[in-house]
Design a protein that fits this description.
Cytochrome p450, about 425 residues, alpha+beta, three-stranded antiparallel sheet, five-stranded mixed sheet, 17 helices, binds protoporphyrin IX containing FE
Length: about 425
């Protein structure tokens, strides 16, 4: 078949050089507006690259599974690649990717995850106890501070206090640079993010030296000890990059999902009541991964939060083999984007997608199970999120403690519309008052 006899997808490349990058970063409904105009596959130009956007579960299956050999993973924006470093799992390919994924997997699953749970609970409770003393608070940055403390403690073993405050500031700088214009003047967000990266890596370097003398059971300790069947481990540079990327993955995304969950529960009293009622059953139980699995309604709420408020709205790929999708030709060297937000709002998959309704995922309905690749907040296929169990454990442990002992009120007169950059969050940051039950 002559692929190029098909026409290119509809859409616009925008302005010379910058294309539609500024609109992509600033326009609230960039993908949705273009989907309304052109349909579920269209072209644009962002971050200097001609890009095809493909929306829906079929597109996800095409990109993540049936035609994954047409794509490589270095389609992420240059800012992302230079700040994460090209050795991280997200950007690896083929055998190298498989080998590293296998080495990293045990550090975030099974017995390692069980060992992390008490620390997650201790830190969650400490933060809740601090917040209950305040008249009011803005929750998103505070949850960011908390998830950072959990991540930095469990991933790189950093202590609370000054060192953590210092690292947290560096992380905020780093996050600001992830989705921005890559200009290297020394005051630009990108340049400051690059400097922050170097400082964090220097910290991790010292933490590695420490562990080489005294092995630990945190993620960094396990990464140092990890070996494949041939006795090969990761190099120091690889460990540093992976640890940094895992910290980024945990911090911003998990804080975003937690904020959305607290907002949604605050806005839907009947869902909150049901989630609380479920906790009555387990009230006296000590938390464990097994106990968390039994909290079926909490799981439905989490799925609906993932659907309505995915922290990462889209995934990036590079096209390495030309292909035809829905009768349109896409040449090699373009970038491709799969849209998580677009899929989750598809009325062909989800009835009344604009409604927040955890019951759509219950045993009888399971809307997402009818069509695969339709709930993709953590990606899908063999490249799905490595930290999904870790993130969900943090979110569940925090939420269980919140539901069992606290009420919270969303304060009036705040802007709860959503900002997508750098991760999804309400514009006001979610102003609340927290009290003990
Ligand atoms: C709510 C929190 C999180 C969300 C929404 C999220 C989302 C995602 C998504 C959408 C992908 C797929 C990207 C793609 O298709 O290329 C991904 C990949 C990945 N995530 Fe997460 N993530 C979260 C938390 C975490 C955590 C806690 C970690 C690690 C501690 C982590 C580590 C990774 C890694 C290493 C990959 C790359 C996997 C691979 O390519 O094999 N993520 N994540």
């Amino acid at each position: 078949m002559n692929l190029s006899s098909h026409s290119l997808p509809p859409g616009s490349f925008g302005l010379p050089l910058i294309g539609e990058t500024l609109s992509f970063l600033k326009e609230r409904d960039f993908l949705k507006n273009r989907q309304n105009k052109y349909g579920s596959i269209f072209k644009t130009k962002i971050f200097g690259q001609p890009t095809v956007v493909m929306i829906g579960s079929q597109a996800n299956r095409f990109i993540m599974s049936s035609h994954k050999d047409c794509f490589s993973h270095d389609g992420w924006p240059d800012t992302f690649k230079s700040l994460l470093g090209n050795k991280v799992l997200l950007l690896q390919e083929g055998d190298e990717h498989r080998r590293k994924r296998k080495l990293l997997m045990p550090t975030l699953h099974g017995s390692a995850l069980s060992n992390y749970l008490p620390k997650i609970e201790e830190i969650s409770r400490n933060y809740l106890q601090q917040w209950e003393k305040l008249d009011s608070l803005v929750w998103f940055p505070q949850l960011g501070r908390m998830t950072f403390e959990i991540a930095s403690k469990l991933l790189i073993g950093s202590e609370s206090g000054e060192v953590n405050d210092y690292l947290f500031k560096l992380f905020i700088e780093l996050n600001r640079g992830l989705l921005t214009i890559p200009i290297r003047w020394h005051w630009t967000p990108y340049s400051r993010a690059l400097q922050a990266r170097e400082q964090i890596l220097a910290y991790i370097d010292k933490a590695i030296q420490h562990r080489q003398q005294q092995p630990t059971q945190d993620v960094l300790g396990l990464l140092i000890q990890a070996q494949d069947e041939d006795g090969q481990g990761l190099t120091k540079e690889e460990i540093k990059s992976q640890a940094l990327a895992l910290l980024i993955g945990t911090n911003a995304n998990t804080a975003s999902m937690l904020t959305s969950l607290c907002m949604a529960l605050g806005q839907h009293p009947h869902v909150l009541a049901k989630a609380r009622a479920e906790q009555q059953i387990f009230q006296t139980d000590k938390l464990s991964l097994e106990k968390l699995k039994l909290m079926v309604y909490l799981d439905l709420v989490l799925k609906e939060v993932e659907r309505c408020y995915p922290p990462v709205g889209a995934g990036f790929r590079r096209v390495i083999k030309p292909f035809v999708f829905n009768d349109y030709y896409v040449p090699a060297t373009w970038n491709a984007i799969y849209s998580i937000t677009g899929t989750h709002n598809d009325p062909q998959i989800y009835t009344s997608p604009e409604l927040f309704d955890p019951e759509r995922f219950n045993q009888e309905q399971t809307e997402s199970k009818k069509i695969d690749f339709s709930l993709v907040g953590f990606g899908g296929g063999t490249r799905n999120c490595l930290g999904i169990a870790f993130a969900q454990t943090i979110i569940k442990v925090f939420t269980v403690n919140l539901l069992r002992s606290y009420t919270w009120e969303l304060l009036r007169n705040q802007d709860l519309t959503l900002n997508r950059v750098p991760v999804l969050h309400p514009r006001s940051g979610l102003k609340i008052r927290l009290s003990r039950i």
